[in-house]
Protein backbone atom coordinates (compact mmCIF):
# COMPACT_ATOMS: atom_id res chain seq x y z
CA UNK A 1 0.00 0.00 0.00
CA UNK A 2 1.57 3.25 -1.02
CA UNK A 3 1.34 6.46 0.99
CA UNK A 4 -0.70 8.30 -1.64
CA UNK A 5 -3.45 5.67 -1.45
CA UNK A 6 -3.55 5.79 2.36
CA UNK A 7 -3.58 9.57 2.52
CA UNK A 8 -6.54 9.66 0.12
CA UNK A 9 -8.65 7.57 2.52
CA UNK A 10 -8.34 4.15 0.88
CA UNK A 11 -7.34 1.16 3.00
CA UNK A 12 -7.23 -2.60 2.39
CA UNK A 13 -9.76 -4.70 4.31
CA UNK A 14 -8.94 -8.05 2.69
CA UNK A 15 -6.43 -9.32 0.14
CA UNK A 16 -8.69 -8.42 -2.80
CA UNK A 17 -10.50 -5.36 -1.46
CA UNK A 18 -9.60 -1.70 -1.14
CA UNK A 19 -12.21 0.53 0.51
CA UNK A 20 -12.62 4.23 1.18
CA UNK A 21 -13.16 5.22 4.81
CA UNK A 22 -15.89 7.72 3.90
CA UNK A 23 -18.24 4.93 2.77
CA UNK A 24 -17.96 2.63 5.79
CA UNK A 25 -21.14 2.33 7.86
CA UNK A 26 -19.81 -0.15 10.39
CA UNK A 27 -17.09 -2.66 11.19
CA UNK A 28 -17.61 -6.13 12.63
CA UNK A 29 -15.03 -8.79 13.45
CA UNK A 30 -15.33 -10.49 10.04
CA UNK A 31 -16.93 -7.90 7.73
CA UNK A 32 -17.10 -4.20 6.87
CA UNK A 33 -20.57 -2.82 6.11
CA UNK A 34 -20.58 -0.12 3.47
CA UNK A 35 -23.11 2.74 3.37
CA UNK A 36 -24.98 1.01 0.52
CA UNK A 37 -25.55 -2.04 2.75
CA UNK A 38 -23.00 -4.28 1.05
CA UNK A 39 -20.80 -6.34 3.36
CA UNK A 40 -17.17 -6.92 2.42
CA UNK A 41 -14.91 -9.46 4.13
CA UNK A 42 -12.50 -8.19 6.75
CA UNK A 43 -9.24 -10.00 7.31
CA UNK A 44 -8.48 -10.92 10.93
CA UNK A 45 -4.96 -9.64 10.33
CA UNK A 46 -6.24 -6.24 9.18
CA UNK A 47 -9.10 -5.79 11.67
CA UNK A 48 -7.12 -3.64 14.12
CA UNK A 49 -5.67 -1.29 11.49
CA UNK A 50 -9.02 -0.87 9.67
CA UNK A 51 -10.82 -0.17 12.93
CA UNK A 52 -8.17 2.36 14.04
CA UNK A 53 -8.21 4.10 10.63
CA UNK A 54 -12.02 4.28 10.72
CA UNK A 55 -12.02 5.83 14.21
CA UNK A 56 -9.27 8.32 13.29
CA UNK A 57 -11.03 9.27 10.06
CA UNK A 58 -14.25 10.17 11.81
CA UNK A 59 -12.43 12.07 14.54
CA UNK A 60 -10.97 14.28 11.83
CA UNK A 61 -7.50 12.80 11.87
CA UNK A 62 -7.62 11.65 8.24
CA UNK A 63 -3.90 12.03 7.60
CA UNK A 64 -2.73 10.06 10.63
CA UNK A 65 -3.60 6.50 9.55
Question: Can you put this structure into words, describing what you see?
Answer:
Helix content is 26%, strand content 31%. It has helices at 3-7, 47-58, and strands at 10-14, 17-20, 24-27, 31-34, 39-41. The protein is built from 2 helices and 5 strands. It is α+β, with helices and mostly antiparallel strands and 65 residues long. The model has no long low-confidence stretch (mean pLDDT 88). The radius of gyration is 11 Å and the shape is globular. The two termini are 12 Å apart. The strands form 2 sheets. It has a 3-stranded antiparallel sheet with strand order 3-4-5, covered by helices on one side.
Radius of gyration: 11 Å
Question: Structural class, please?
Answer: alpha+beta
Number of strands: 5
Order of helices and strands: HEEEEEH
Rounded average pLDDT:
88
Largest sheet: 3 strands, antiparallel
Shape call: globular
Percent helix: 25-40%
Task: Extract low-pLDDT stretches.
Answer: none
Index terms:
two-stranded antiparallel sheet; 5 strands; 31% strand; globular
What does this entry show, briefly?
The protein is of the alpha+beta class and 65 residues long. The protein has two helices and five strands. Helix content is 26%, strand content 31%.
